[in-house]
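Appendix B. Extra example for self-study. Work through it before the problem class; the solution is given directly after the inputs so you can check yourself.
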Amino acid sequence: MTKANIREQEAYSAFLEDFRPKRATLRNIVVAFFVGGLICTVGQGVLTYIMTRGIPLKQAYVLTSSIMVFAGAFLTGLGVYDKIGSFAGMGAALPITGFANSVVSPAMEFKREGFVLGVGAKMFQVAGPVIVYASLSATVVSILKLYVF
Amino acid sequence: MKFHRRGKSTCVFEQMPVLVSAAAVVGPREGKGPLGAEFDMVYSTTLLGEASWEKAESKMLRQAVDLALAKANLDESDIDFLIAGDLLNQIISSAYMAREYDIPFLGIYGACATMSEGIGIGSLLVAGRFARYVIVASSSHHDAAERQFRYPTEFGHQRPPTGQWTATAAGAVVVGVKGKGPRVEAVTIGRVQDLGVSEPNDMGSAMAPGFADTVWRHLQDMARKPEDYDLVLSGDLGRIGSLIGRQLLRNKGIVIDEIHQDAGVMLYDPSPEVGAGGSGCGCVASVFSGKLWKELYNRQYRRILLVATGALHSPTACQQGESIPCVAHAVSIVSE
Amino acid sequence: MAYVKAFVVGGLLCAIAQAAMDLTKANPAIIMVSAVSAGAILSGLGLYAPLVEFAGAGATIPLPGFGHTLVTGMLEDAAQWGLFGILTGGFKAVSAGLLSAVLFGYLMAVLFNPKG
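Solution. Structure tokens for the complete assembly:
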């Protein structure tokens, strides 16, 4: 048997510490801040513009997110968003444009497996967990809010 | 009956099989890398005019096989066995390539270690007089591997510095009973090593113990020292894995720092995208077939040790919390 | 001024997510799931609504805003229908975002091929 036992595994893991490259954490955080901030500023611009057209605030927010989803989807289609994502990490993934990227990228990727089992089945491969856990946590929070607090 | 084995795991050839020819084809990123001029063919797109990444990979592999045959002045009918492997599930690139040829086919899987596994098996077939000529090929495709092992290609995410870039490349080698060219002297078949690394974005750390074990065993079995080799070419420990592998060997009293090079490090210029270096079956296959074979043919090296290392995990196994089993096979090659 | 607030708050949320990813070495999917759940919890604690009030799109565009919108929608309907409102209100509130993702996602898949 050549699978190491726990003690050997721990020894190897400790040995690896000396070789572990430093992640460019500070650089990544700064870049995420600026790119994420920029995307939100664009969103704010869209929101402000929509409101000048006389649309009430609540609807304006909804429309803004829809427009930002389109923007993220379109940039993914053009093959640009993956580059923004590899440059900015969470700065590109956390805004709703990144959510759109996570829906469009598998949809495009698996088109070659057909429109039902490819596009249809794989579209939420990455975004699915986000929707599942958003629904679960929101339900739990709402129930607590209604009946406990 | 006489056996041609030394030690526990090394097969030594009395009549050494000849690496008659070799060919390498690569994608655009590899073509722009430091070894760009060494390859027989550089494609300008990763799709190669095909309808999918998988089809493109298969085409690349076919191209490498055709080129290796042409360089050896051999025809399909001269080849007794075709041995090939790749990274995709059920090694489809190899199977779809093999259906284009009227040659008995052996599909193999050793992840990035496929090339040395194939050259080893091919040499055994030739040395055992079961074949006059065997062709060995392996390939990988960045985008096909990405969608299978990680995320869709257009998904924007950051790669950790330990991550490696799967090469879009293919290599093929013709092994024959006779002819001009470098000769295979011995083959050491590796044992699967697993030291509990479970992070698929850190394959260098996972594979280094396999590399060190196989190199150590080879030297033991052959009763040799590192100085007996002009080059130890690993494929694809990457920058970090190379340092780990060397240190593991140093701990056993073997110093290879001066003569060690890694195909994953050689293939690309450093960049955050490429991370620790190249990987994939096609990486060491194309570096060996494109560069090293030529240099051996021109007698720039007396003797080299090709040690391809493979991480034998799958996304399913990793998601189930398994660690990554790794293997490395060593092929000792001498110039004529 | 609204733009500066949106930039700073949106940027900070992304920076926190990035820090979480780099320090825990978790994969992006886990960070996105955590972010959206964190948004729901903050919303429940009554902290997210003031943030939206303050930063506008800077708070609604990042993923935690998605969790907040869900909770807000659920509570809005629940005020009228009780427990049943939780079932109807959530997806009503995020319908635009989700349906846009499906529609535009499908459209882009029809129009474009991945470039690798």
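Self-check: The mean pLDDT of chain C is 96. If your reasoning did not lead you there, revisit section 3.
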